[in-house]
Amino acid sequence: MNSFWQKLRTPFFTLAPMADVTDEAYRKLIAEMGKPDVMWTEFVSADGLYHTREIKKIPDAENPLMRELLFSDIERPIVAQIFGSNPETIRYASRLVANLGFDGVDLNMGCPDRSIEKQGAGASLIKNPTLAVKIVASAKKGVADAHSDIPVSVKTRVGYSHEIIDEWIPTILATEPDALTVHLRTRKELSIAKANWSLMLKIVALRDKSGMSTRIIGNGDIRSVAEGKEKALESGADGVMIGRGVFGNPWVFSGRVYSEIPKTERLDALVSLAHAFETLTPPKHFNILKKHIKAFVNGFNGASDLRAKLMQAESADEITDIITAYDKQSHVETQ
Ligand SMILES: Cc1cc2nc3c(=O)[nH]c(=O)nc-3n(C[C@H](O)[C@H](O)[C@H](O)COP(=O)(O)O)c2cc1C
């Protein structure tokens, strides 16, 4: 294993894949405000990629699934996450990811969404280890088909209805992934129960016992770099992945204290995000941006009124106008 994963200084920090949150627009903002060591795309359906490109022949510029695979150099190293349960489409999608120039391909084996699980993908692969092993092998074949050697990694959970680390982790490690992210909850716990970081010790010990150099990344409930470093130190994890901690806080990886980031800086960041969001091709529905509005416009005097106005906006220009008017008003009030 001689991938970029091995060159990272530990503990390293990664941005979690989050559908309809960590799209290219938000990743660019995060890269500017405080870049993590590795970024992930939102997940993309391997079956969907195969069908839209190969069967329906939809041009990439009109294919919403290809939009999830947009990235720019500022985001590197960036890993594309795919999901699926069909080894052939996983092979196809991994080849595509390698051809597009990504730094790695990641396989989703933890998503609890019913529509994903119905396809035998996501967390349901934890219940089907034989298929899970085939999926990793297929991804490696796809990368080789592209004459590439980008690393293949897996993101999973500690079990399905209960913790089964002792069986599941060695099964995945035996496929020799370059990195393994473990969300420290079972499928059944969704993201509701507290992430169980004490389980990380056992996972790291299993990796050490296997003799593999797979990078182990812990995930769940980390809200700051300081907290992540502490958890990595206690558990021996090589890296820490942050998901919801980036909501409204693209500075999270910079180590800045969120409460000390001036309101004007937060609002300016939201304005740039809105403009970048509008450039995604094909466009995403503007309502998707509203998650970010709720997260950014929070915790200061007048936030709820401003948020209510912004939630009515239908374009980046409207967002800019509302925020400019708010800034002027605040300025008058402080005179
Ligand atoms: C809105 C949302 C979308 C998500 N989408 C994905 C995804 O596409 N792929 C994936 O592996 N996990 C996905 N996750 C799970 C996160 O990557 C992460 O594992 C989870 O949020 C726990 O980390 P956290 O406590 O730091 O948020 C998503 C989570 C959220 C909240």
Q: Termini, distance in Å?
A: 61 Å
Bound molecules: flavin mononucleotide
Q: Indicate how many domains the architecture comprises.
A: 2
CATH architecture of the largest domain: Alpha-Beta Barrel
Q: How is the biggest beta sheet arranged?
A: 8 strands, parallel
**CATH class label of the largest domain:** Alpha Beta
Radius of gyration: 20 Å
Question: What fraction, in percent, of the residue positions are helical?
Answer: 40-55%
Please tell me the overall pLDDT: 96
- Write down the oligomeric state: single chain
Beta-strand residue fraction? 5-15%
So what's the overall shape? globular
Low-confidence region ranges: none
- If helices are DSSP runs of H or I spanning 4 or more residues, what is the number of helices? 14
Structural class: alpha/beta
- Say what the CATH topology of the largest domain is: TIM Barrel
- The count of DSSP E runs of length 2 or more, i.e. the number of strands, is 8
* Strand neighbour order, sheet with most strands: 1-8-7-6-5-4-3-2
